[in-house]
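Proteins fold reproducibly. Next comes an illustrative record:
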Amino acid sequence: MRSLRQRAGFGRPHQLLTLEVARGRQLGVAGIIVNETSVPRTIAEETNVDELRRRAHVPVLAVVPYQELPTHEIPAALAALDWGRLER
């Protein structure tokens, strides 16, 4: 596993448990990509990414913000990633 993509609404416990299982199976995780599937409405949702950065011990590579109307364009947060570097 090179990157972990999580829906922002799942919350830290689910994301951190997924990382723990990946590490236990000796899967390398380059980082986390957070996909916001709705507008953050609670303090937990608003602080989720900051808490992940503090507790996950892998980088948050990108946060894909919620879009009310999906497009075929690659979100800027993903376009800015150096995917080749993540493969190493």
Remarks:
- The beta strands are 3-7, 31-35, 60-64.
- The longest strand covers residues 3-7.
- The two ends are 12 Å apart (CA to CA).
